[in-house]
Amino acid sequence: xxxxxxxxxxxxxxxxxxxxxxxxxxxxxxxxxxxxxxxxxxxxxxxxxxxxxxxxxxxxxxxxxxxxxxxxxxxxxxxxxxxxxxxxxxxxxxxxxxxxxxxxxxxxxxxxxxxxxxxxxxxxxxxxxxxxxxxxxxxxxxxxxxxxxxxxxxxxxxxxxxxxxxxxxxxxxxxxxxxxxxxxxxxxxxx
Length: 191
Prior knowledge:
Elements: H1 3-18, H2 26-38, H3 42-54, H4 62-74, H5 78-90, H6 98-110, H7 114-126, H8 134-147, H9 152-163, H10 168-187
Helix pairs in contact: 1-5, 2-3, 3-4, 4-5, 5-6, 6-7, 7-8, 7-9, 8-9, 8-10
């Protein structure tokens, strides 16, 4: 799946999860999120950014979307960190930078964001923003599976397809590393 395809899939999953599909009361939603966002509520900042990204009730504006995502991301909201990573990966409203995308994906993954874990796997598998590393890609896919939820099946398919191109020893080493990282994530120590 190409970059824009990933972006569309991730955005669709986010919109469905946030309940921001087109509403009869877009203006009321805009005012509520704007008011809460200006007061520093990270969830409202993220949703306000999503409204700008989608053009829900307001004109689509990627620069404004990125600005609000960044505010929420800097306050530690994993969903915003992930979306900001996507925007950097695609250069939408921000300068395109695979390295910057990797940093935001990593922060989101440390917040147990499954989507970010999958995207880290893809980035490592394809050598985007980092040196290509099948073992590390396998680890991130495996962590996404352990995090579970919406689309763990995607991570399973990616991990298993990748394992077919690895030696048995590489797979064992990756599984051990995933065990260690998962213990850190579960205990709150992160990566």
